[in-house]
Amino acid sequence: MEISIPTLLRIKPNAIYKIGKYLRKERVIRIALFFGADLKEKFAEPLMISFDSSEIDVVHEETVTTNEAKAIFKSAFALPSTVQAIVAIGGGKVIDYCKYIAFVMQLPVISVPTSISNDGFASPGASLIIDGKRRSQKARIPYGVVIDTEIIRKSPESYTYSGIGDLISKYTANYDWKLAYRMTQEPVNDFAELISSNAVAIMVNYPKKDIKDLEFLRLICGCLVMSGVSMEVSGSSRPASGSEHLISHAYDMIASKPSLHGIQVGIATYAVSWLQNNRFHGTIKSVLEETGFVEYVMKNPLNKDDFIEAVKHANNVKDNYYTILSDLGNVEKLIEFIKEDEYFNKFLS
Ligand SMILES: [Zn+2]
C-alpha cells in the first residue's frame, strides 16, 4: 500500500505572501492556479506579488464554481503539459476539484484553504457530482498545505466552528471503528487511530479556546491536517468518520436547509457520544461550550424533525459500515434522547 503525506506544510500568519517562495524551494516554477468562486478579487493581489517576486509562472488559471466530474475532466485535459503543480485557493469545492485533477493527471496539488470548515483540505478523498449525484471519490492527498492563519481569523466564524465540529467527531469515529472491529472483525489501523485521536486531544488540551486567537487557529489547522492524513494512512475514512458523519450525510439529503458539514457533525457527535456512553462525552460538551460552538448553534439551530429523520436514515448512507447505530434498538434510543434531552434541544429548533 502506498501512503502519501503532505510534504510542504506552512501554517502561519501572512503565509499567502510567501507561497511563491515555498514553491520555488520545492523546485516548482510553473503552476496551474484555481480559485474558488468570488475569491480571485480577494486574493489575486497578494498571490501575484508572491509569484512575481519568486518568478513563478502561472501558465493556467481558472475559477471553479462546480464540482461536476465532467467539468473536472475538461479542466484536467486543458492543462498545458508544462504545469508542474496545481494550486487551489479557497474552500472545499475548489480543493476537491483540484485534488481530483491531481489524481487524474498525476500532478501534485498545493491546497491553500481560505477557511477551515472541514478536514478536506488535507484528505485523500473528494466529494464530486457524478450524473447529478454527490459521490465520495478517491482523489490525491495534497502534496502541500499552506494556510494563512490571518485569513482564517478573518473568515466567517461559522466555518471555523464547522472545523471544530469536524475535529471533535474523532472521539465518536474512533469508538465506532473499534466497535466495528469487535462486531465484524474489520481491522483497525492503530497508527491511523493514534493520529486522529491525538489530533483531537491537541485541540482539547489547548487552554485558550478563542477562535480569534492565531495560535489556537494554527493548532486547529494542524489537527485537521492530521485528520486528513489519518484517512490516507488507514486507506479508509474510518479514523475521521463514524455514525455522527452518517447522520450528517443523511441530514444533507433530508433537510431543506442543510448547515455546514462540521456544524452538523459536531451536533451529531454530542448525541452519538451519549449513546456510546463515550468516556469523552463530558469533554465534547465542554469543548463545544468553551469555543463558542454551542452559542453559535443556538443562534443557528438545526431542524429537529429533519435531524430525527436523519438518524432514522443514517444506517442506509454507507454499505457495510458498522457503527453504534447498527446495534439493535440504538436508533430508537437515540431518537428518544433527541426528543427528550433538554440540553441537546439547544441545538435544534
Ligand atoms: Zn468530516
Number of strands: 8
Instruction: Report the biggest beta sheet as strand number plus sense, adding barrel if it closes.
Output: 6 strands, parallel
Strand content: 5-15%
Structurally, the number of domains stands at 2
The termini sit apart by: 46 Å
Strand order of the largest sheet: 1-8-5-4-2-3
Question: What does the average pLDDT come to?
Answer: 97
Q: CATH topology of the largest domain, which one? A: Dehydroquinate synthase-like, alpha domain
CATH architecture of the largest domain: Up-down Bundle
Keywords:
alpha/beta, Dehydroquinate synthase-like, alpha domain, binds zinc ion, Rossmann fold, six-stranded parallel sheet, 349 residues, two-stranded antiparallel ribbon
Report on this structure:
This protein starts with 7 loop residues before the first strand and ends in a 9-residue tail after the last helix. The longest helix has 21 residues, at 214-234. It is globular and about 60 Å long. It is 52% helix and 14% strand. The strands form 2 sheets. It has a 6-stranded parallel sheet, with helices on both faces. It has a two-stranded antiparallel sheet with strand order 6-7. The chain is built from 15 helices and 8 strands. With 349 residues, it is an alpha/beta fold. The protein folds into 2 domains: 8-154, Rossmann fold (3-Layer(aba) Sandwich), CATH 3.40.50; 157-347, Dehydroquinate synthase-like, alpha domain (Up-down Bundle). The chain has helices spanning 19-25, 40-53, 69-78, 92-105, 149-154, 157-168, 170-184, 190-205, 214-234, 243-254, 261-275, 281-291, 293-299, 304-313, 330-340; strands at residues 8-12, 30-36, 57-64, 85-90, 109-113, 125-130, 133-138, 144-148. The chain binds zinc ion. Residues 118-119, 166, 241, 245, 261, 265 line the site of zinc ion.
